[in-house]
Each structure stands twice: as structure tokens, then as C-alpha cells.
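Input C-alpha cells:
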């Protein structure tokens, strides 16, 4: 038998969709800004595609930044499944879960029923790395957007060096989010097929299912 339990708060689900949709817009517009694929003669017309692409990139960047702020807040003040210490491998329970998950995903040993409602530790650690990458991405983006601002001029040069090196780091990190998104979608579908926990539906409803003895 399976019982339904509340898992993800409205704020966590809001973060998820802000993060996901902004990544799509940022990647598409980022590729265009880096290498425009329209006729350059359009730039002298009223349509001005480069200006629109840059504008959408900046708006999506602010949405992306707001999403990360929400996630950082939830790492500390979220519910039990959303806090950062639920996935840090510092306890025996989390270390066992990490090892079982690695064996399960490697098809070495069936993990059995999950002993947790939220993320497994491997997924949780991946999300933490992604949030750190996002903070670097946001910092490099604002450094390029406001190169003459007193704060960014000092810290930006200290962290990223010149504008060109910052642009290279920004572009390189974009591939992390592309690869992460592809693997994330695949693993969610894989888990939904393997286990009736409602992984995909939970990001809409906030509820997941856990196995109970009849």
C-alpha cells in the first residue's frame, strides 16, 4: 500500500518552475547573443532582434537570481525535506542512502523502498553543486552587465579577471545547466517508471507517496 504525504512546499515548487523556465530562456537567448543566426540587416530595422534577445536574457537572469534566493532561503527555513542538512552526507542514515542510491543507479543492487520522503542524498548533493554553479553564473552575469559599477568592478576583477574571461566562464557554466537539465528530466522519468512515488506529479501537487505495510 502507498500513503500520500505532503513533501514540497508551494515556495519550493515556485522555485523549481522559475529555475526551469528561466534556464530555457537564458540558454536560447544566450546562444543568440553569442552567435546571432538572423540576418544582420534586421538590426537596423524596428524588430532589432539582438536588443530583444538581450532584454529577454536580462529579465530571465533576474528570474533565475530570484529563484536561487528562494532556494537558499529554503535550505535553511524550508520543511524537513527542503533543508540542506537533509541531504548532506554527515550522518549514518545519509551515508547509507548515498551508498544504496549509487548501487541502485548502477544496476548493481535493487535499493528497495526509499527510507526518506524527499531527495535521495546523491540527487540532493547534485542540486547543491548546481546552486553553487548558479551563484557563480549570476555573479559573472552581473559583472558583465555592470562592469563599471564600483562594487562589481572591484570584486568582478578579483574573482573573474577581465570581461573576456568572465564571458568564457559564463558560457562554460551554461553547459552545466544544459547537461544537468537533460539528466534531471531523464532521472525523473526513470524514477517514475521504476517506483510509484509520484516524483513528477509531486512538483505540481507537492505530494509524494511512500510504501507502507498492508
Amino acid at each position: 500500500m502507498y500513503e500520500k504525504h505532503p513533501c514540497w512546499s508551494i515556495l519550493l515548487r515556485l522555485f523549481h518552475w522559475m529555475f526551469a523556465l528561466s534556464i530555457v530562456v537564458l540558454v536560447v537567448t544566450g546562444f543568440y547573443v553569442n552567435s546571432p543566426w538572423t540576418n544582420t540587416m534586421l538590426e537596423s530595422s524596428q524588430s532589432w532582434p539582438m536588443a530583444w534577445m538581450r532584454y529577454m536574457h536580462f529579465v530571465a537572469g533576474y528570474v533565475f537570481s530570484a529563484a536561487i534566493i528562494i532556494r537558499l532561503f529554503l535550505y535553511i527555513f524550508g520543511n524537513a525535506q527542503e533543508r540542506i542538512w537533509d541531504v548532506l552526507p554527515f550522518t549514518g542514515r545519509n551515508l547509507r542512502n548515498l551508498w544504496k542510491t549509487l548501487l541502485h543507479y548502477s544496476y548493481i543492487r535493487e535499493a528497495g523502498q526509499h527510507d526518506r520522503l524527499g531527495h535521495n542524498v546523491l540527487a540532493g548533493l547534485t542540486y547543491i553543486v548546481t546552486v553553487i554553479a548558479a551563484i557563480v553564473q549570476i555573479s559573472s552575469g552581473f559583472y558583465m552587465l555592470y562592469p563599471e559599477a564600483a562594487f562589481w568592478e572591484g570584486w568582478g576583477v578579483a574573482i573573474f579577471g577581465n570581461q573576456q574571461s568572465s564571458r568564457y566562464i559564463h558560457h562554460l557554466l551554461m553547459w552545466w545547466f544544459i547537461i544537468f537539465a537533460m539528466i534531471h528530466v531523464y532521472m525523473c522519468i526513470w524514477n517514475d517508471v521504476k517506483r510509484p512515488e509520484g516524483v513528477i506529479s509531486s512538483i505540481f501537487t507537492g505530494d509524494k507517496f511512500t510504501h507502507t505495510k498492508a
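The mean pLDDT is 88. The helical segments are 10-34, 49-77, 92-105, 121-145, 150-160, 163-194, 199-205.
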